[in-house]
Design brief:
The chain is of the alpha+beta class. The chain contains two helices and three strands. The protein has a three-stranded antiparallel beta sheet, with no helix packed on it.
């Protein structure tokens, strides 16, 4: 018959997969517009967010790249 049969259970618990998919596509589109590609080389001077001590931002130097967007930074 080329269509899915509905029951009363479908009315109580609707399939929200299509709504979630639309929201995810919209989120990906917004991310592509507002995203900033950042890359750092070893030896670059950067500011590191430090939540544990008094100063919020601490100056440091990139010492290694540990992943696509992760870096090891020397702050001392």
């Amino acid at each position: 018959m080329h269509f899915k049969l509905r029951s009363r259970l479908d009315l109580l618990k609707p399939n929200v997969a299509s709504e979630v998919e639309k929201a995810q596509e919209a989120q990906c589109a917004r991310q592509q517009i507002h995203a900033k590609a950042r890359s750092f080389q070893v030896g670059y001077k950067v500011q590191v967010r430090d939540n544990g001590r008094g100063e919020k931002w601490t100056p440091g130097v990139v010492s290694a790249e540990t992943g696509p967007v992760s870096y090891t930074v020397n702050v001392g």
